[in-house]
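Form 7-S
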Amino acid sequence: MSASGPGVDTHEMVLIHRVLRREFGQLPRLFRAAAGDRARSETIGAHAREMLTFLHTHHTGEDELLFPLLRERAALDPELMDRMDVQHAQVDDAVTAVDAELPAWTASADAAAGERMAARIDAMMPTLIEHLAEEEQDILPIVSVTLTQSEWDALGKHGMSAIPLTRRLVILGHIIEETDDAERRRFMKVLPTPARVAYKLIGHRQFTRETSQIRG
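Output:
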């Protein structure tokens, strides 16, 4: 794909959305089940922190690198973009609230704090699910014919920059967990060869071990 003209493959964002739906959908159960168990709260707390950062980075990337370009270049439904902004704000409020309680809960496994975080995510999920669906149905088709490849790649680099090097293979495992064979080949093809080899040799095993511990 040429970096000098529009026409980008946006399917990788669909894969990112699957991670968000799946992992945030599981967090309330994990918070509640870890009540009183400090070993579990440390495991779940680390995973929740990673996912909160993942979601926050995803949204800030859209706010800074995607939505301004769309508003500048495309004939957009103002109500749709207003909803995007409101949904981001609502989800970000929940993320901030959970983030504030997470360190103390991770150390204590306090049942009341775990329930508060679980309830906040439960309340957030309908908005998040609606938001992701609208992006996939209404925003990504516009993106694919509006942004250049280099602009789309900048969004991906923004997301990757927030992930420590030591965690990137595990995040890769999350991204490809629910892909079919064609999607997996399509996604892995754009990765550097060292990353593909490292995932095959190390990353998949690390991801499988960690998710087994998290999900119990």
